[in-house]
From TrEMBL:
Involved in the biosynthesis of ADP-glucose, a building block required for the elongation reactions to produce glycogen. Catalyzes the reaction between ATP and alpha-D-glucose 1-phosphate (G1P) to produce pyrophosphate and ADP-Glc. Residues 19-287 form the Nucleotidyl transferase domain. Transmembrane segments: none annotated. Residues 310-413 form the Glucose-1-phosphate adenylyltransferase/Bifunctional protein GlmU-like C-terminal hexapeptide domain. The record marks 70, 109 as: Could play a key role in the communication between the regulatory and the substrate sites. InterPro entries: ADP-Glc_PPase, ADP_Glu_pyroP_CS, GlgC_bac, GlmU/GlgC-like_hexapep, NTP_transferase_dom, Nucleotide-diphossugar_trans, Trimer_LpxA-like_sf. Its EC number is 2.7.7.27. The keyword Chaperone does not apply. This is Glucose-1-phosphate adenylyltransferase. It catalyses: alpha-D-glucose 1-phosphate + ATP + H(+) = ADP-alpha-D-glucose + diphosphate. It comes from Sphingomonas gellani.
Length: 423
């Protein structure tokens, strides 16, 4: 450890760089990621998914951040430029957007998550951080990375892997860490049919969250070794971590130790909103009286690009034509005009017109809902214009023919689907 930093009593986060892997395609979100990368997908009314990892880094005290982008990156890069451009080099802060720009070879995009870091080693070295915190840009959670950094230093590990305790048979969808009694990782299995349990707790397994801490010098050596290894897929989860479990010292860090919770949050919250069902559910859950995720926690704010908008407005007060929203989140610049909104989430700039009814609807920015439309259990993509009188959520077969309907009955609506309707 670099003692002169430690003697000053400075948090380790000040000597760390957060590196966010935000190239994800997010194909299980289907049409929602036709025009944007998964980290750029809207969440919670006015944020994007990537804002959670970035806010965690900022709130943890990390002031050097790099974001590697690849797939359909335009809206993500624009969001980062609008919302995250307040870092100042003269305060030893930096914010680098690192698109796959064929910097290493003319033909090469980022091949895997490790390659997305390897191709930018020179940029990392120019900032000279002591530690690297590698993050996925597409999960919803609040976490203090300083606590994980401290554990990494104290344990003397080569890599520390953040893990979440999950019921053992739910772990089949994750990379699972098999640990000994000191949480040293002794085996790493990707999506196992029979996950190993935690010592002393046969019903619980440790699932990797794709959050890693390394000392920078060690990480760079490992990336160079991996890049020279024939047949490697250049990926942290598939190559680097399994190699270090076998040949080095890999330590598990339990998310419950560093998860940030307000007084209102009963348990550690972490979600991969990578399917339409999971995305809809996580957004609608925010309408609960006491939601599992507290967006109102001033101690750990969710930073994002905040558009300058007028307040939300509710108009008309006639029976049957009353602008109202119950158990809902309504963002700025929304006008609820003579329509009733229940257990729904309206993002910035949504307009709903007279006699429309929305129930359990997740509506992305700048949508218009026409008069008399009745929509239940829907996700409406940005900018969609819902025609007058459209009914969704009553007839499953009709919904499935017109739109994308999931097995759980959530209907995703995009403008091209509306344009194809024969109304």
């Amino acid at each position: 450890m670099n003692l002169h930093h430690h003697r000053r009593g400075q948090p380790l986060a000040r000597d760390a760089m957060a590196y966010v892997l935000a190239g994800g395609r997010g194909s299980r979100l289907h049409e929602m990621t036709d025009t944007r990368a998964k980290p750029a997908v809207y969440f919670g009314g006015k944020s994007r998914i990537i804002d959670f990892a970035l806010s965690n880094a900022l709130n943890s005290g990390i002031r050097r951040i790099g974001v590697a982008t690849q797939y359909k990156a335009h809206s993500l890069i624009r969001h980062l430029q609008h919302g995250w451009n307040f870092f100042r080099p003269e305060r030893n802060e930096s914010f680098d957007i690192l698109p796959a720009s064929q910097r290493v070879s003319e033909t090469q995009w980022y091949e895997g998550t490790a390659d997305a870091v390897y191709q930018n080693i020179d940029i990392i070295e120019s900032h000279d951080p002591e530690y690297m915190v590698i993050l996925a840009g597409d999960h919803i959670y609040k976490m203090d990375y300083e606590i994980m950094l401290q554990q990494h230093c104290e344990s003397g590990a080569d890599v520390t892997v953040a893990c979440m305790e999950v019921p053992r048979m739910e772990a089949v969808a994750f990379g699972v860490m098999h640990v000994d009694g000191t949480d040293k990782i002794i085996d790493f299995v990707e999506k196992p049919a029979d996950p190993p349990s935690i010592p002393g707790d046969p019903d619980v397994a440790l699932a990797s969250l794709g959050i890693y801490v390394f000392s920078t010098r060690f990480l760079i050596e490992e990336l160079k070794r991996d890049a020279a290894t024939p047949g490697s897929s250049r990926d942290f989860g598939k190559d680097i971590i399994p190699y270090l479990v076998k040949h080095g010292r890999a330590q598990a860090h339990r998310f419950s130790a560093s998860c940030v919770r307000s007084d209102e949050e009963p348990k550690a919250y972490w979600r991969d909103v990578g399917t339409v069902d999971a995305y809809w559910e996580a957004n609608v859950d925010l309408t609960d009286v006491i939601p599992e995720l507290d967006l109102y926690d001033r101690e750990w704010p969710l930073w994002t690009y905040s558009e300058i908008t007028p307040p939300a407005k509710f108009v008309h007060d006639i029976d049957g034509r009353r602008g109202s929203a119950v158990a809902s989140l309504v963002s700025g610049n929304c006008i609820v005009s003579g329509s009733s909104i229940h257990r729904s989430l309206l993002s910035t700039g949504v307009r709903t017109h007279s006699f429309a009814m929305l129930d359990e609807a997740v509506v992305l920015p700048y949508c218009h809902v026409g008069r008399g439309a009745r929509l239940r259990k829907v996700v409406i993509d940005r900018g969609v214009r819902i025609p007058d009188g459209l009914v969704v959520g009553d007839d499953p077969e009709l919904d499935a023919r017109r739109f994308r309907r999931t097995d759980k009955g959530v209907v995703l609506i995009t403008q091209p689907m509306i344009d194809r309707l024969d109304l």
